[in-house]
TrEMBL record:
Name of the protein described by the UniProt record: ABC transporter substrate-binding protein
Biological source species: Streptomyces thermoalcalitolerans
Family: Belongs to the bacterial solute-binding protein 1 family.
Keyword tags: Transport
Pfam family, one: SBP_bac_1
Biased composition (Gly residues): 47-62
Region entry Disordered, spans: 1-21, 47-67
Amino acid sequence: MRSTSSTIRTRRTAGAARAARTGGTARAVAAVAAGALALSLTACGGGDGGRNSGNARDGGGTETTATVPLPRLNGTTLEVAAVWTGSEQANFKKVLAEFEKRTGAKVTFVPAQDPIINFLGSKIAGGRPPDVALLPQPGAIKQAVEKKWAKPLGPEVQKQLAKNYSRGWQDVGKVDGTQYGVYYKAANKSLIWYNAKVFENAGASEPKTWKELLTTARLVYDSGVTPFSVGGADGWTLTDWFENVYLSQAGPEKYDRLAQHRIKWTDPSVRDALTTLAQIWSRKEYLAGGPDGALQTEFPASVIQTFTGGDQPKAAMVYEGDFVQVDIGETGAETGTDAKVFPFPAVGDTAPVVSGGDAAVILKDSRAAQALVAFLASPDAATIQARLGGYLSPNRNVPDSAYPNEVQRTIARALIDSGDDFRFDMSDQAPPAFGGTPGKGEWKALQDFLKNPGDVAGTQAKLEKDAAAAYGDGS
C-alpha cells in the first residue's frame, strides 16, 4: 500500500513507510512511450469512466473553467492531518494555500504518525481532533465511522463527487451506503521496473505472463545479475506482491470475498497464491541479499539498488507502483532509457491492476470543513498538485496536461479510462490491525513467509488467526 506517496527516500518511521506506499514526491522524469504501460485499473468495467465528461478535460487534454463555489471563511481556522512528509507534504500545503486564498480561512497541516487511526484516537481523547484527516485505507474509514469520529459528507461535497468521480471511486469512500470519504489521491501498484541495460545484456524481454517472468528471471540470473530486489523490511510491499498474484490467479470475485473476510485465509485460493509466490521467494539466489537481506531492505533502498551500479546492480527488477519513479530519479538513472517498466504479468487469465489511495474524511463537522473537502473533491485542488509531480488523482476532470511527464499522463489516463469498477488494495480494505500495522497481521505473516516460503499451511493459519481477531467476527 503506498497509494500512493516524498518521502520515498530513506524510511525511518512507520509514517514515512505509509508515505512510500501511497504516493511520491515532486520530481520530473523523462517520458516513457505510452506503449510501455499497458495499464488499466481493472475488473468488471462499467461505463466510459467519464473521461470526457464535464468541461475540464477533453480528448486533447485542454483545460477550461471548472471551479467549485467556496464561501468566505475569514477568521476561521482548520487543521488537516495526514502522514505525508517531505515534498508530498510541501505540495499538499500549496493546495491548502489556494483554499486559504479563496476563502480567507487559515489551514494548518498536522503531521500524523502511522497507524493514523491510533494517532487520531490520541488527539480525540485529548479533545483536539483535527477537522479533516487523510486516511490511507477503506478499513480506516470504516473504523472511524464505527468509533463515531467520521462525519457524513454534505450536499456540496457530494455534488463535486458526482461531477468528478466515477461511481467506483465514490463507493470506496462509503460505509453502509453513506459517503464519508473523498479519495484525493490514488496509486497504481501493479508495475515491475527494470534495469534496461541488464535486460539487454541478458537478452531478456518484457514478460506478459508469470511463466514468462520466471523465464526472464532465469535469463537475468544466468547473465550474472540477481533478478529481484525486494523491500521486505516494509511489510506492505509483500502484501502488494500477494494481492497482484491473488487477483490475477483467483479472480475479482474471490479477491473481493477475501478482502471482506467472507472466505478464510485457509481457503485453497490463498494456498495457490502463496505457492505461486514461493516460485520466486523460495529461490534465495533470485533475491538481492537472499531472504535475510530482503527483510533488512527498506522500500527506497530496494529501488535504489536496482538502478545503481550500471549494468551490474544488486538486482535487475523491483516490483512496486507508479511512485517508484521518485527513487529512480534519485539514482541518476533516466526513466524510459536506463529504467523501464512493464505491467505486473498475468498469473491467471488477466493481468492484475491493484490501486490504492488516500481519502479526506471530516472529523469536526462545520461549514469550513465541508468546504475544504468539497475543494479537495474538485479538479481545482487536484490540478494544483498534479502539476507539481509525484501525484495521481482519481478525479476524472483533472486535465491530462496537468501531469508533468508522459509516464504520469499515461498512468492517469489509464486510471480514468478504467471506468467505474476497479480493485482496491486488499490490505488497505482490512482493519488496520491486520492489514496496516508494522510487525503485525498480514505484514508480519508475509515477512515470515518470505523467510520460510515452504510453510504455506502455517502461513495460512497465522493469517486466518490474525484476520479473525482483527475483523472481530471469527468468520
